[in-house]
Amino acid sequence: MARSSQLLLVATFTIATLAGVNTTQAQWNPSNGQWGKDDSTDIRIMTWNVKDAICRTNPKQEGVNNWCAVARIIAAMKPDILILQECGDNNGNGTGSNSDSAYQLGQVVNMLFAGGYDFYLSATVTSYVQAYDADVDLPYVFVSSETDGYNRNVIVSRFPFADLNGDSTSQRSDIYTIQADEYAPGGDGGIRGFMFAEIDLPDETYAGDIVIGNAHLKSGSGSSDIAQRHYAARNVAYFIDYFYNGAGTGTPDPNNKISDSPSATSILGDDTAIVVGGDWNEDEATNGRKGPAEWITLAEYSGGSDGTDRDRSDMTYDDAREPHSNVRYTLSNTKFDYLAWQDSIVTLRRDFIFDSTRLASASSWYPDEVLWGGSTSTISDYASDHCPVIIDLIAPMPSFEMADLNCDGAVNFNDIDPFVAALISESTYYADYPDCDFWLADINDSGVVNFEDIDPFVECLVSGGCP
Question: Which of 66, 172, 281, 399 is the most exposed place for a label (fewest CB within 10 A)?
């Protein structure tokens, strides 16, 4: 008791010394140029059609160009998982000539984030994501082997890939072929494939893992184009529900209609969510028909028990807006780009669009990373004709005991320093303990962490755990 009291007196003195210092910095305050996450444990996912900016023949130097614009915007938005479409086309005209292989594009994506020497153009890469924010590190890259002859899709992650359902693979460039069943017409994920990656989230921070899907569905307004998009979306809805979640049966592919080999041995865990996105080429709010976003999230019926969420309710797709103008468009005056998630598992904290052109009259809104050599309002236009859609998701967390502030599974003297950090501010705590839970310091369950928690924290230390 004497030792713990002495340490807490030191802690109280430290806090008193810092009492007049404001150590809290808002992470989400776009009107002040801050576009980050409210909580470090939120999972930020970003989808972006980058319109040929990422390819091996594109110069990768600092300047007013599309490569630099893309790198700067990624650095500003700081995604944990990034899904990209229209990568690898070196002609930029859809001819298919001289397109990147999956291997080449993987190297190019690594250059986009980490720089280095561009051996394709015999030059040093001077514009790259980590040049603008060294902490934006997404080292895990999956480039789809599926291509329409010129473009590829890409998933880039801060977290590693891992097999989550026992079929010996963590990445697939397209869904397995499906035989016609229920609402699924049969076939695969369409012209460019619908890629999926299974991602292993750190166990000390999250109760489950995450599966990410990414697609650039068939473009065009002709009847055959629409049919291709819808067929792909219906097959994907079936794949999510039957393959990954077992259609409520607890068994993957219960109708034996999915040509997976080797077969999955289990469905996803209760706390593992599926998030899918991409350029789906229809505006669900304005075209007067049920499109890919509704098929993928609702399956055949709105409501009911055939949805694609883990509990067979409907998934949710974004209603992201550019926060200054409240505009929902991602391409000219329409919305083609979506993110959808299983909301029975993960909770949306925020969805938004970044579009620099709509901030031209609000210069304080620009994050530092996009302040470049050209007019800042034009950086989105230089990057792509699409704007990125970003979501922050709150994922289930493991259960740690109250006062276990370093999340090591025990309440002891090692929790004093993190407790002091929590008393200073939430941001101070997460700066040192990013994978733990600030609210474990609210010992008296008052809804705030303050000096009133010190005495109950001492009692927890004395007892080796909170009553």
Answer: 399
From residue 212, alpha-carbon distances to 49, 348, 382 in Å are 16, 16, 27
CA distance 80 to 125: 23
What would the two tokens of residue 387 be? 């704007």
Q: At what angle do helices 454-463 and 2-18 cross, to 10 degrees?
A: 150
φ/ψ bin of 442: left (φ > 0), alpha (ψ from -120 to 50), beta (otherwise) = beta
Which of 1-15, 323-337, 379-393 has the least mean pLDDT? 1-15
Query: What is the rounded distance in angstroms from the CA atom of residue 7 to the CA atom of residue 19?
Result: 18
Residue 2: pLDDT over 60: no
C-beta of residue 280 within 8 angstroms of C-beta of residue 233: yes
For the entire predicted model, the pTM comes to 0.86
Would you call the peptide bond into 185 cis, given omega within 30 degrees of 0 as the criterion? no
Place 93 in a pLDDT band, splitting at 50, 70 and 90: low
In contact, 252 and 263? CB cutoff 8 Å: yes
44: DSSP letter: E
Provide the 3-class DSSP secondary structure of residue 242: helix
Three-state DSSP at 244 gives helix
CA distance 70 to 53: 7
When the pLDDT of each residue in the chain is averaged and rounded to a whole number, the result is 92
The three-point CA angle 430-431-432 to 5° equals 90
Beta-carbon contacts of 460 under 8 Å, excluding residues fewer than 6 positions away, are: 402, 403, 411, 443, 466
In degrees, rounded to 5, the angle at the alpha carbon of residue 82 between the alpha carbons of residues 167 and 115 is 110
Hey, is 28 helix, strand or coil? strand
